[in-house]
Amino acid sequence: MSLTPPPAPQTDTTVSGLPGAVVIAGIRRTLIWTIVAGLVYATFMTGSKGICPGGIDANGGFIDADGRSVEQAPLCVSLTLRPSVFVYAGIALIVLIALGRVAKAADERAALRTLERAIQGAGLLVAIALVVSHVWFQLTPLEHFSSGSWTYFSPFPLGVIDVVTEPMTGP
């Protein structure tokens, strides 16, 4: 004999939810993860570097990269890496295509698989954009920008590199 009362019978507390509630939860999860992917992209898609070849001599005049005295201030070059709107558009397109496929899915399993692939696709797009853009940015030689004429090709769809040239300011 026990002094504790017998356990009460378990009643079924599960409520029959909205049909497709699992798919709606999957859509919510997809939206959250793609927003997180966009925030990660915006946070880590930054960088800058610059060079000012030449300088100022002991008399206060300007010198060029070779150390020769010049009348005009040498040009300073600054490169800035920033996010591209095309990656955000790509993430949105992935979500919209996934939602269209979910609406036509034969069952919940196929719909959830589509949503999972959308999360993976958005993450892969962001990862590729970050790696390609940062590697491209780091491999950009600043010395070529100090010459008279130059051409620059950037990883345009994945990241934007702004080039600013301005004369060196005095001491």
Level of helix content?
40-55%
How many H/I helices?
A: 3
In round numbers, the mean pLDDT is 85
Q: Order of SSEs, N→C?
A: HEEEEEHHE
Shape: elongated
**Total count of strands:** 6
Q: Can you summarize the main beta sheet?
A: 3 strands, antiparallel
Round the Cα radius of gyration to an integer and report it.
Answer: 29 Å
- Going by helix content, strand content and strand pairing, the class is alpha+beta
Strand line-up in the sheet with most strands: 1-5-6
Distance between the termini: 95 Å
Estimate the strand proportion. 15-25%
Low-confidence stretches: none
A few lines on this structure:
This protein is an alpha+beta fold and 171 residues long.
Structural write-up:
- This protein is of the alpha+beta class.
- The protein is 43% helix and 16% strand.
- It contains 3 helices and 6 strands, in the order αβββββααβ.
- The chain has helices at residues 21-44, 85-103, 108-138, and strands spanning 47-51, 55-56, 62-63, 69-70, 75-82, 160-167.
- The strands form 2 sheets. A 3-stranded antiparallel beta sheet has the order 1-5-6, with helices on one face. A 3-stranded antiparallel beta sheet has the order 2-3-4, with no helix packed on it.
- Helix 1 (21-44) packs antiparallel against helix 2.
- The protein is elongated, with a radius of gyration of 29 Å.
- It starts with 20 loop residues before the first helix and ends with a strand.
